[in-house]
Amino acid sequence: MSERTIGGVILDLRNISLSFGGVKALTDISFDVREGEVRAIIGPNGAGKSSMLNVINGVYRPQQGQIAFHGKTRHDMDTHEAAAQGIARTFQNIALFKGMSVLDNIMTGRNLKIKTNFLQQAIWWGPARREEIEQRRKVEEVIDFLEIQHIRKTPVGRLPYGLQKRVELARALAAEPKILLLDEPMAGMNVEEKQDMCRFILDVNEQFGTTVVLIEHDMGVVMDLSDRVVVLDYGRKIADGLPDEVRGNPEVISAYLGQAH
Amino acid sequence: MNEGAREGVRDEAALANTFPQLLLHHAAVRGARPAIREKDMGIWQSWTWAQVAAEVRSLACGLAAQGLKRGEHIAVIGENRPRLYWTLTAAQCLGAIPVPLYQDAVAAEMVYVFKDANITCAVVEDQEQVDKVLEVAESVPGIARICYDDGRGLRNYAREGLTSFDELQRIGREYDAAHPDFFMQQVATVKPEDTAAMFYTSGTTGHPKGVVHTQGALIDRSRAACVLEGLTDREEVLAYLPPAWIGQNIFSYAQAYVAGFCVNCPESPETVAGDMREIGPTYYFAPPRVLEALLTTITIRMEDASRPKRAWYKYFMNVATRVGGRLLDGDSVGVGGRLLCALGDFSVYAPLRNALGMSRIKVAYTAGEAIGPDLFRFYRSIGINLKQLYGSTETAVFVCIQPDGQVRADTVGPPVPGVQIKIADSGELLIKSPGLLKEYYKNPEATAEVLDSEGWYRTGDAGYLDRDGHLKIIDRAKDVGKMADGTLFAPKYLENKLKFFPFIKEAVAFGDARDKVGTFINIDMEAVSNWAEKQNIPYAGYLDLTSRAEVYALIRDCIEKANADLATDPKLANSQISRFVILHKELDADDGELTRTRKVRRGFIGDKYGVLVDALYNGCASQFIETRVKFEDGREGMISADLKIMDARVFPAMRAAA
């Protein structure tokens, strides 16, 4: 039924190692992400999942390894560069501007698309004005897509947690990313909010063809949503493959359930 | 100004008596005026009457090209959306019959309607509704065509007969180009006697019934109410209730087509409050529960305000209660009162109306259930012309409306012009009106049950006309009994009267075939415990609180107030409450004492607490009772208590004192 097409490799990570002083966060990890797929990164607490995302969008610089995005190989990414190339993300702990309205928060996601300069915008004249109207239209599309019309003008700090998560997704979407990195999008949500979030992630993936890389603890969610899963444990990759393959992998089971010694 | 408006409506009355004709009339006379608006992507988009006529035309041609025939039923499912409203007219242009369905019904509930009305075609809002219709189609063969408004998520649905609204209109425009005379010919064949729409009643017992209304019936009632209220083409309404409910159809479709005013569709159900502020409707309907919810939000927000603001608000709300309602009724008010009220209006009432989105309201109605007098008075006292009306699906809503200046909390007003009212010997209210249903669809027995050969419709409600010719509804006819002396006993009316007191949560009235009325009372734990704390009354728990003498005195005061009120009503003066007992446990659906919708099961309670009922009538001062209760975790236990039974003062019937 689905028309989704999964293309070639869009993001390729080779032999990534990252350490903080003596602590090895990631050790020699390689995996790839194909265009249009939903790729999950799972693993127990402290496995290095968030570090992995931070490497992908340039928050951390790995000591070793290469990242190839759209075929361009380099040692590391710069956060700004990553965003400009179409990598957007949400955070494990919500990182929104609490005092600003939902609308303004999402508008910040359009920042990189704005071409007029500070002075033009301050005068609010000619191209700056036209541009803002255009940006606002795009933002409204995202608002409509995520069904958050009713909180458009509400300050983010007043919203319940589940909705804040949705606003964060909206801000990431407003950047019209090629790859969307989601760090535990479902953490702390109730069942209904989780279902909604799943639906939105799938809709984003199907409708816009956005590639999604997500970290998640809820195994049911991961198995339902993702096309391929990579499993980390103590900074090493212990499995990579289809959800069913990964689920049956004895190493994964022991990492998650612990092993009798 | 009103004269001109009435002139306008009358002028159109001569011209058009079907919805298609009305549409063409408005397109010609006020083609550039807005007909419908929808907030989309944060911006209000509007369509003029001329644009709507063009949209409807292409849609009707599209439906015809796809094979929709005269007399066929077409399901319309979704929130209030302009395109779904156009679908109603488009179907009516072809002589087909739109059947709006509740958008939140699940597929299983829709199956019966699809089967009953032989529906082969559905126009729906979005993916959610498409999914439901597809699910229905699994068990009901013959659903051939589904058209959707919002295509989100539907890109990958490959099913024959599934078309988008745009596609359907494109087909329609081609068809129109090939058959240029088709549309007008179709419109010309539609007669006022033709069925305009079918509304399914919720059907609390048995299957839902399809109420068939003719074009003439809906238009006649809408016009009568428009003339009565002087509604013009300048009105704005907000369409926010389910379109499958006849009231929504009347207020936002039929009346808009009669008067030519503008209907506004909110962005989503969650944004209604904000959209209402932006639109500022001039004509508004809200069931009591919506008004109550609004008042609760105001109260909560006021409690968060600073102390001087709260004091200011409280002072002027008291002024409003004393003066505001009387000003609205056109009674004479002293200069001091007027000045205070003007100050209150400037500083409190006007900002409050503005916050509610009610600044521009000319007429607001409430109906559906009994409205608490305090709630009703609140809205009237801040200057909103809130009125009650009486009607049902079968009567095309308008049976009685309170005219301006004659608004009271306990009646629903005199009959609307065209309506005749008769009270049967049983106390049941009978109605004859041009707006009555034609029949229940494919259900002659049910039709015969409510419509007699002379055209009187049995409402199932018991009521009577008071001295001023206002209708007073007291209860469902089947619940009304007679006291031993033959006067009326309306238990639900009494119970509702008591429940309007904040301290009383539930009441059960007994008195059928007896000489006096006695009641069981459930106190409202929250309200009474708050009160008890303020009075420094110690108590150990629910049971202890209910047996306190102070609480008995409090409840007695409430009952005596209700009695004083009943005494002014010659028909009900005999059913004043003479004795009561406060129950030791809350009535609970788990124990079978309430229905799941929290209505008291009077018969069951009467049997279960038989000793207490006897005690109400044998004059003893207290009664021991032991009751089995079910706890929330499923365990059972016994509660026993020695309950006091107290007398309440009854008043001699007053004649025309008020």
Brief synopsis:
The complex is a heterodimer of chains A (261) and B (658). By secondary structure, chain A is α/β, with parallel strands linked by helices. Chain A is 38% helix and 25% strand.
Describe the fold and architecture.
The complex is a heterodimer of chains A (261) and B (658). Chain A has 261 residues and is α/β, with parallel strands linked by helices. Chain A has two domains: 1-86 and 177-261, Rossmann fold (3-Layer(aba) Sandwich); 95-176, no CATH class. Helix content of chain A is 38%, strand content 25%. Chain A has ten helices and ten strands. The longest helix of chain A is centred in the middle third of the chain and has 19 residues, at 127-145. By secondary structure, chain B is α/β, with parallel strands linked by helices. Chain B folds into four domains: 2-280, Rossmann fold (3-Layer(aba) Sandwich); 286-384, no CATH class; 408-478, Luciferase, Domain 3 (Luciferase, domain 3, Roll); 480-647, GMP Synthetase, Chain A, domain 3 (2-Layer Sandwich), CATH 3.30.300. In chain B, helix 2 packs antiparallel against helix 3 (49-65), helix 3 packs across helix 7 (165-178) and helix 13 crosses helix 14. The longest helix of chain B has 23 residues, at 307-329. Residues 1-10 of chain B have low confidence and may be disordered. Chains A and B meet through helix 5 and helix 7 of A and loops of B.
CATH topology of the largest domain in chain B: Rossmann fold
Q: Can you count the helices of chain B? A: 22
**Major sheet of chain B, described briefly?**
5 strands, parallel
Across the major sheet of chain A, the strand order is 6-7-8-3-9-10
Note the gap between the termini of chain A: 47 Å
* Number of E-state strands of chain B: 27
